[in-house]
Amino acid sequence: MTGQAAIEVTPLAVHIGAEIGGVDLRKPLAPDTVKAIRDTLLQWKVVFFRDQHLDHAQHVAFARQFGDPTPAHVVFGGGDDEHPEIYSIAKHRTANSTKDAYAVRPWTGWHTDITAAINPPMASILRGVTVPPYGGDTQWTNLAAAYDALSPVMQAFICGLRGVHRFDEPRSRRDLTDYDRAVANRMMVSEHPLVRVHPETGEKVLYVNPGFLRSITGLTPQEGGHLMEMLYEHMIRPEFTVRFRWSEGAIAFWDNRATAHLAPTDIFATEFERQFYRVTLTGDVPVGPDGQPSTALEGAPIEAVG
Question: How far apart are CA 31 and CA 101, in angstroms?
């Protein structure tokens, strides 16, 4: 790959995750370095950098070399007048979609960001500022590898299916939370293919999402529920995943079109503080193997910050 010699790539797992060294993200990158990082991201789905102590402006500048940032969070807001692209991810942030009524399953918490939108984010870039001395690891899974590991019969079956993605429904109209009000004010519902074709690599990706997929079009609730549970269980098999131990100044950059991730919950059993910041890049409309794009059922596309 052109420019690959400009960076150092160390794979962290067989199917996903690589650490990149030999680059200073505080400065503008040469075009061949940008290409080398992007090529590494496409191959490994999530890439990590160590000891990159960026401020907000440097974080945004780095992100803009790879795409157009969205607002801090298209549903829950955040950001400020100077840096509207920066989303604060603190240990006890207000926007929390976890519902106490949900039964905890092995895939609980795993998600791909905002697939309720017709054009879900292309990628996210997360940096650690205040990092606990232990605990708080984040995990990612490779959804292209997950698709490849399915039987040919199952692949053929799900390639013809589509699913409806949306945020959680309010549990009670009389007891709306801040989360419920934010979702109601920026309602997004989309029908996506269960298998999408990656727009850059051409890979087929298992595009199911425990955080947003609510039903499978054309199947009964019982049929769809069993199929979703089977695919969720499959997609988080350990061999498809990588787990990252954070450090201050570490950065994770992941392809939202080919991964799902799991935010840590073990930190709530400690007194440690944790403060991270994220920039998200706008994405395209998913397309299935049949060439048919996703359909917006409600809400407007995610727009970039000018």
Answer: 49
